[in-house]
Specification:
about 20% strand; 5 helices; Glutaredoxin; four-stranded mixed β-sheet
Length: about 100
Amino acid sequence: MNAQDKIKQQVTGNPIVLYMKGTPDAPMCGFSAAAVQILEACGVENVATVDVLSDQDVRQGIKEFSNWPTIPQLYVNGEFVGGADIMREMYQSGELQKLFGK
């Protein structure tokens, strides 16, 4: 399975997917840490996370898949939402909470 197929399977097979550097317990960059904190503040559980540092094909492939150059990247119900800055803006406006039904 190539990286694009793997990513498509992850995105469509899980309601919420966060592609990040590191893990929720040990984020490896400030933006990934912020994304995790925002999801926690929204009360979201059962987030599938993918550590892009552990798979270079996925690390590059996710940028091509979304046509978005940076990580982290959030997907909800198969749709690309955005990175940490967009998540923060959506959280502050209440839009992200609505997306999660909170």
